[in-house]
């Protein structure tokens, strides 16, 4: 994809996210009508642009579910499709949300990325002796409820409840680790978009705001903070690019999400510093970006947990050098 094609795609997506800001339930269909499936088929890395613009616009959609379902071989528009329940926080993305089976019943605790409005069933990954499987559960039994916490505009819904095993329909999900990798790199691109939007707001503020007769962006302390953010964003964006070039590679995707989460965290913290008191007000848009960055960090493994996971991978793959035994020269 050359520079002109990139700009055209970016502008089309920005117009689309703006148009559907008030009606996110129609966003996925609108993306398909745009011919995005053909674009991604020809240029797989274009998917990163889609999620980056979603993050920049703070949009809510079911696009993450479509990426995950496609990775496990389920048609997002087919009869087995439905919203996916994701784990949060330190829980392993490999084993899925908190679930337990007891006396013929399944207890579940997890979240939906979107409300999944009107969905008859939800799809839940869970750990088995043979690996992670995927099951379909009636949504009415779990009664999804909107979450009004940190990211109130994020379309999050929480599910918890007890389900009879007779109501659980098992689906094949032998490729769940690939689905996690695909989801992580999509979330990484979205976090990069959030970070870029945050940096844009900070730059605009420090350019327009004056102290002592000059823009506050002219002061070294402010410039150094924003330069540090720019470096972190570009490093994360390159990691996302490499993750898409590698395909759904678990290691590359985990690195991309960890770096993107760190970049978004750094951007909102430094933006809060350079924007000062006005950045903490409800009228200023920064708080929405802060909320979204924290929420996205938690999905499919947060940055700290991913760094720990990556450290374990490095340790397991390390080769212990074989040292020759110390031999003393008898003549010495």
Automatic annotation (TrEMBL):
Residue stretches spanning the membrane: none
Pfam families from the UniProt entry: Acyl-CoA_dh_1
Domain annotation Acyl-CoA dehydrogenase/oxidase C-terminal: ranges: 180-312
InterPro entries per record: AcylCo_DH-like_C (IPR036250), AcylCo_DH/oxidase_C (IPR009075)
Signal peptide, first to last residue: none
Keywords for the protein's UniProt record, in alphabetical order: FAD, Flavoprotein, Oxidoreductase
Protein name as it appears in the record: Acyl-CoA dehydrogenase family protein
